[in-house]
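User: Second chain of the day. Same drill as before.
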Amino acid sequence: MSSEPDLHRAISMKPSPFHTYPPRDRTSSPHPGPSHASGPSNSNSNSNSNNKDGASTSVEPSTTTESHDPIARHVPPRESDLERQSSPQYTPDNDPYRLAAGLKPSEELAKIRANTSRKRDGFGPITLNKSAHRARKIEKFYEAQNENIERLLKPVDDHRRDAKEEEGANHLKYRIAVVGSFVANVLLAVLQLYAAASSLSLSLFTTMADSLFDPMSNLTLILANRAVKRVDGRKFPSGKARIETAGNIFFCFLMITVSIVIIVESIRTIAEHKSSHADTNDFHLPSVIAVCIAFLTKFSLFLYCWAIRNMYSQVRILWEDHRNDLFINGFGILTSVGGAKLKWWLDPMGAILLSVLIIFLWSRTAYSEFQLLIGVSADTNMLQLITYISMTHSPSVHQIDTVRAYHSGPRLIVEVDIVMDPEETLRATHDVAEELQIKLESLPNVERAYVHVDYETDHAPEHFLKKEL
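Assistant: Same format as last time:
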């Protein structure tokens, strides 16, 4: 299997205090489907999936006009948060394929974890356990397996709820990390702009250019989000969500262009320097203090995001950004002070090295954005989740023929081919397929879902990668 694309560096995936992707409300089919298509109550359906009832991640679309949100089938309507956070009880109804049997209990993980510690034989000194590395890898494997199984067995409604919570609607720590980072980036951009303009240090100009990215990227997201909301459905039938990705690509190349200009200016400064000039540059203390304040602020944000980076996936992206900014600002301070105290050429040389690094980082980000724009496939975990939801959607779904999920900008397009009874009525097949479409589009980050109904799997694929004109 080919390696999965690493898209976490894409700007579209980064959190913004003003730009979120709330799951959209969907309405159910207006036609009342047959009894076997509405839930897992009929378990004696003729199916090629070992007669398993589709119940684990399924949702029941509401038929009332008061709410259009899908409701999880096996979650009581008045369930308290305490009950929801307790350990779920897996039954043949909500775990038809017995995936929970693969969960490793905490006692076994504790035993594996114990093998990674230092051992004392009773006589000699403490020695390292030679099998610790292998035991640690086994522990991580089973932890990832447990997370994957629990994610598959989680109802769609819980996926939507968790996505809303991770966006920061109800978590103070997350909001502090995202909003605090944005406010700090705006203030630090102004501070570093003053430092670069007052000292005329090329190294500080490079750090200033990099510091302008975060607030400018948030501004790009805000403008793109407004453009998406004002879409004309007749002119753009599929929406304009990809305008955000296109704007991010433009911004990446703008940053690369600025870095190239700084490289050219640094080379010109080195070439035009004469031996009669001073061996060092002028030292401007307020500029150095300003950049040091920016460094300390970034270091504080780095430590805060590091403490909660495993709680929220988007905070991990912020943590990586702060880590990179620490290196760039720290190196910029050293080369700027070095050019004023040691040798003049340290400042332009440091600006060249930092600009090359920034070009590399932004080229990598632009590549990730290009992958989102041209339609790179979703990761394996998402494909597994879509497949399992489709398998357990209804007993009327006999087989799954094809599952595709690919990016269309920051969100996903999903295509699923399901196999049903050829003697089933059009109304029944329509309702089952439409309810599956609604369910898949309820998943976070899914833009649209297309469900195709077939009665066999021997035919050739309907779509080809290359279309002959």
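The longest strand covers residues 399-408.

User: Great, on to the next one.
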